[in-house]
Every structure is written in structure tokens, then in C-alpha cells.
Amino acid sequence: MRATFVLGRIAGVRVGVHWSVLFIFGIIAFGLARGRLPQTYPGRAWAVYWAAGVCTAVVFFASLLAHELAHAVVARRNGVEVDDIVLWLLGGAARLKSEASSPGRELRIAGVGPLVSLLLGGLFTLATWLLELASVSVIVREMAAWLAGINVLLAVFNALPAAPLDGGRLLRAFLWWRTGDRLRATAGATAAGRVLGWLLVVVGLVAFVRTNSFGGLWLALIGWFLITAATAEGRQAQLRSALAGVPVRDAMTPGPLTVPADTTVAGFLTDVRYRYRHSAFPVTEDGATVGLVTLDSARKVPEAGARSTTVADVMVPLSRTTVVEPDSPLADLLPRMEPGAEHRVLVVDHGRLVGIVSLSDVSRRVTWLMNAPGRRGGP
User: Fold this and answer.
1) How far lies 137's CA from each of 49, 52, 130, 132, in Å?
2) ω before 103 within 30° of 0 (cis)?
């Protein structure tokens, strides 16, 4: 999942936010401001409740960020590069560019997240006690108590032995160490994730039917997310196994047709070279690759402005495009790829554009490998 907007970098890791964060942020703030706080401590001004609710939601997401940053920092210390961290509807995700090279490193990377959440839960518990000793406002104490409870809950839930949770990574590390087979270990962890997911769906729906509580639907939604994420993770693990040892150059489309950055959108759309076969093209300026333009983005330009708007105005800049070298492992690139023409991967060799890769290119390569077992070279 890509970030809707980027907050910046923390400890060298790019941090972004998906628009769906606004939904859960609103639920937390509203639930505290209109529910828990006025019911527990009535008689305050509505502005006090809302200020407390919003502040608590902000600190909660800071706690999520600390959890994911811990994963990212430990991953880098164990030789695994981090793409970015994205906060979204159901929490956060640190996207890693590759996998851990040993069960021990997998254990360290996965285990640090729940530990940080548990530590935060302890710190907020201590803060609640100290605030009570200091006779600070009960609203502030309730904020600290809620944050203590939610962080402990986050630690416990993430430690459940089911992919894609941190506990699923811990289970995979154990199974990998026990069997010596990472693919089998992943299969075990993803199977556990699907079982837990279906259990949460059933429990959530039953709770909703019996109590008419929104919490039941929320639990079912989390369960459905676990099912889909665990299934996707299992499929990706199989693909990574099939692509082991295959370089990006074996899947890329070599020598892609490029578009000069100063080409007008009208010229781009009417040029017969760009009207067939491909839907995205690298953009160049003075011989250097500067971005990627898609036919869809160009077609969104109003006809009246197509002759004055250049390709550079509608392209995806190079800073937001995935760029790899031709000898990079294709298996490491796969987790970073997403559907859509705007997510094509540019292949650059010592500053020179040599190819472009899409998910369909990877799919064709996998199909060829499946039909030609034991072969890893070009057809």
C-alpha cells in the first residue's frame, strides 16, 4: 500500500500516511470525545472532551509509528533494507525490500515491534500512576490509561502466531529454524493466519448479531484483512521461491521507447509510436531518465490544455518511481511492485536506462519457469 502523502524521514526511513488513517483517527477521537470520556467523567465542556480525544488519537498513531520504526531500525541493522513505513486504516506497515537471511535475524526483526508496544504500555501505565499521585485532571489520567491499555493490547494481538502479524513472523522464524525450509515455514505461518482470520470473522459476526455492536463488525473486518493478507503472503512466498536466482534483466522489456520531457500531451497522444502495446513510457530529459508517464494520466488533461501541457507536467517523477539495476534479484523486487501502469519499474545500469518491468512481465517469467523446471536463463 502506497502512502497518500509523505510526512518526512525518521531515522533515515521515509514515513507516509494513507488516506484511510483519517477514518480510524476519527473513530478513536469520536469514541473518546462522545463516548468513554463524557460517560466516565461527565460535566466537562465538550471542547475538553474533543481536545482530549484528538490528542489521544495523535499519540496513539505516534505509538504505532514507534512500533514500525523499531522494525525498520532492527531490519537495517540485520542487513535488510527498508523501503518505507505507511500508516493506514488497520495500523502501520514497514515495507522491507528483501527478506531476512536467517531465522535468527527474522526473529529479531519481528520480535522488536511487540516489545516496543509492550514497553510503551508500561510507560503509559507508569504515567497514569504518577499523574494520579500529582492529582492531575482525571481527563488527562484517563487519556494515559487508555493509551496504556491499547498499547498492551496491540502488543498481545501482534504477538499472536499467525501471518501477517509479528507473531506470524516469529512462528515462521521458529519453523524455518526447525525445518531449514523457509517456504514450508511461510506456508505454516500463513495457514495459521487464515485460521485466526476466519475465527475472528465468525466471532465478530456472532457478536454483532447478538449485541448489535459495531465492535463485532470491526473484529470481523480485522479477521477478513488477516485472511486476505495471509493468502497474499503465501502466494508471494511461492513466487519468490520460483524466482530464486533470477535477475531482473531476465524479466524486463529491454530498450523501452522513451518520451522527451518537453513533448506536449497532445503530441504524445497522437504520436503513433505511443498508441499501441504499452501503457507507460519512461520520460527523458537531456539523455537522463526523469520519470514515467502513462497514457491514462495524459488522457486526463483537458483537450483545451493538451497543447500547452508537457509530459513533464503529468509524469510520475523519478523520486516516486521504483528504480533497480538489471542484476538485482527479481525475487527482492517483487514485494515492492504494485498493479497499475504508474507503478512500472525502471531498470537502470550505471545511469543508463536499459529496461522496464511490469507485474505482467514477472507473471510471464514465472509461467516460463514453471514450464521449464531447472532452467534459469533466458528462453
Assistant:
1) 12, 11, 12, 8
2) no
DSSP string, 205-227: HHHHHHH--HHHHHHHHHHHHHH
Amino acid, res. 140 = V
Q: Is 145 left (phi over 0), alpha (psi -120 to 50) or beta?
A: alpha
Helices assigned H by DSSP within 46-98: 46-77
pLDDT at 173 exceeding the cut of 60 = yes
Strand boundaries in the chain, DSSP class E: 5-10, 13-17, 82-88, 91-96, 253-254, 259-260, 280-285, 288-294, 316-317, 323-324, 345-349, 352-357
Distance CA 236, CA 199 (A): 23
pLDDT (tens digit per residue) in 94-103: 888 778 889 9
- Calpha distance 190→167 (Å, rounded): 11
Please give the helix or strand (H or E) that residue 131 lies within, else none: helix 103-133
Looking at the DSSP bridge assignments, the partners of residue 316 are 292
Task: Name the grid cell of 52.
Answer: 482530549
Backbone angles phi, psi at 128, to 5 degrees: -60, -45
List Cα–Cα distances, 56 to 36, 49, 129, 221, 349, in angstroms.
12, 11, 17, 23, 48
**Amino acid code (one letter) for 164:** P
Known catalytic residues are 68
Residue 152: closest CA among 161, 142, 144: 144
Instruction: Count the residues in the chain.
Output: 379
Going by C-alpha positions, the residue among 146, 126, 128 that lies closest to residue 137 is 128
Question: 198 and 219 in contact (C-beta within 8 Å)?
Answer: no
Which among 264, 319, 268, 267 has a CA at the least distance from the CA of 289?
Answer: 319
| pTM for this entry | 0.75
pLDDT tens digit sequence for 257-305: 999 999 999 999 999 888 777 899 999 999 899 999 999 999 999 999 9
Residue-wise pLDDT tens digits, 362-376: 888 888 887 765 554
